[in-house]
Amino acid sequence: MPxxxxxxxxxxxxxxxxxxxxxxxxALRAAGVAVTELTIGEPDVRTEAPILAEMHRAATAGHTGxxxxxxxxxxxxxxxxxxxxxTGVATSRDNVLVTPGGQSALFAAHMxxxxxxxxxxxxxxxxxxxxxxxxxxxxxxxxxxxxxEHSFFPDAAEVRRRARETGAAALLVNSPNNPTGAVYPxxxxxxxxxxxxxxxxxLISDEVYxxxxxxxxxxxxxxxxxxxxxxxxxxxxxxxxxxTGSRIGWLIAPEPAIAVLIDLATNxxxxxxxxxxxxxxxxxxxxxxxxPRVAAPFRRRRALAQEILAGQTIVGLxxxxxxxxxxxxxxxxxxxxxxxxxxxxDAHRIAVMPGESFGPSAAGFLRxxxxxxxxxxxxxxxxxxxxxxxxxxxx
Length: 395
Ligand code: PMP
Known about the structure:
The longest helix has 21 residues, at 290-310. The chain has helices at 6-9, 20-30, 49-60, 73-87, 101-113, 130-136, 156-166, 186-199, 255-267, 274-285, 290-310, 337-348, 374-394, and strands spanning 36-38, 96-99, 119-124, 140-145, 170-174, 202-206, 231-236, 249-252, 316-317, 325-329, 350-354, 365-369. The strands form two sheets. It has a seven-stranded mixed beta sheet with strand order 2-8-7-6-5-3-4, with helices on both faces. A five-stranded mixed beta sheet has the order 1-11-12-10-9. The protein has two domains: 6-46 and 290-394, Aspartate Aminotransferase, domain 1, CATH 3.90.1150; 49-286, Aspartate Aminotransferase, domain 2 (3-Layer(aba) Sandwich). Helices cover 42% and strands 14% of the residues. The protein contains 13 helices and twelve strands. Helix 3 (49-60) runs antiparallel to helix 10 (274-285) and helix 4 runs parallel beside helix 10. By secondary structure, it is α/β, with parallel strands linked by helices. The structure holds 4'-deoxy-4'-aminopyridoxal-5'-phosphate (PMP). 4'-deoxy-4'-aminopyridoxal-5'-phosphate binds next to helix 5. 4'-deoxy-4'-aminopyridoxal-5'-phosphate (PMP) is lined by residues 41, 101-103, 127, 174, 178, 206, 208, 236, 238, 244, 249.
């Protein structure tokens, strides 16, 4: 065959894509082996029946043709109203692009912010797809390291220095954070916002976990002074409404950015299915108790995990403020996150994500998705800590 483009073959920069343990676990499962999967960030409850009923109603009523590309007006209005209410920043339909999931919005944001070859900063550890998404948009990812001893908060002075050094076009932040669970306080976001204003780059704020706050408060940096004009916000119904498979999310941006991003959508996705949008509109507007109901199991399991981990000293629990993961420090075992995750899967058929999948700052850590029923979750965690204790004795 003719050569493949370097753009497509270098998306993962020659390394793995970070999902290796996940694929290994899925292969074991396919081969009939029972595996406890604590890898992917997907609620264990399915999309609720009334949302599916609305999806079915909309589809059978004929909303199966091409939908308008930026999103149906009623959904754009509902998203704008939600953002206005939650952030206090006046937001209209013209600030909203409906996208097939937050992932597509991440790509769109970088396409809008970066020219080919531009540097794009991203706080690290980061969600697995960030570097590949930035490369897909033609930009070059640069990780801003964070440290456990600083609660995995980014340092604004470091961001400023790196932005100056690289001439970065954008900084990607994610609070509540996947994988660390960090929720950035106002002071951290103010520091980043000042850097963005002074160095003139876009702040791309991934807020897909904004309904999963366990401690502290969620603050959208778009609400800080002078930031609405240089912030793009990624939202999604995947985590908040257990709608991962529906592929429905949004991008909030200044009106001129949305105007050109509609061209991108026209030439790539050509919009989101109308019946999915109708279901999303229903999910966002019909039942206020839905979001807390979807978030409740994670809050409960987090408390359960705190109890289990308090009974031992080998595995450290990184204090988290939000999102559906535990971030565990397993450095006392002497193993890397990859080696530990691999050994745990081999020995106990429990699959967790190695920290290294999320960047070098997460080496020696594990991300554990709190996405199985409480009892099984508690049992898996006890097995994991017992395994770590045996490893640390052997070391
Ligand atoms: N951002 C973060 C931080 C995520 O964890 C995820 C999914 N795990 C996404 C974006 C993308 O989610 P989706 O495309 O399903 O909306």
